[in-house]
């Protein structure tokens, strides 16, 4: 594949996931942010924050080539309005980074670490793909939390029990 097709494919896949992801985030009420389906499960608010935040990871991966858990901080978000604004800001940053992505950058290493401990050190191309999958996975987890709380699950890749797309 040539440079345009590889980088444009990442952008296209990323962009395709945005509308349904935003709908999920919009539907999570703040009063459920502390809810969790099991003691070992993430709280609904943290899961929603994670889904809103992953596009920021993509931007950082491309622009800085490294994420360090010791210096990476999560904002304290308490309202759906703030969560959506955080998501929208992260989407714009990721889009900007993806638009500037070159094939040369794809072969450069991405490093995920916790202080001096290296967790991942592999080509950016591998990590962008897995991060997109990670994002979709956690959005799917959100839809289960939504169903368990009688929140209408949006149509994602086709109709849901709550939204018919035909």
UniProtKB/TrEMBL annotation:
InterPro entries: DinB, DinB/YfiT-like. The keyword Metal-binding applies. This is DinB family protein. Belongs to the DinB family. It comes from the Bacteria. It holds the Pfam family DinB. The keyword Metal-binding applies. Keywords: Metal-binding.
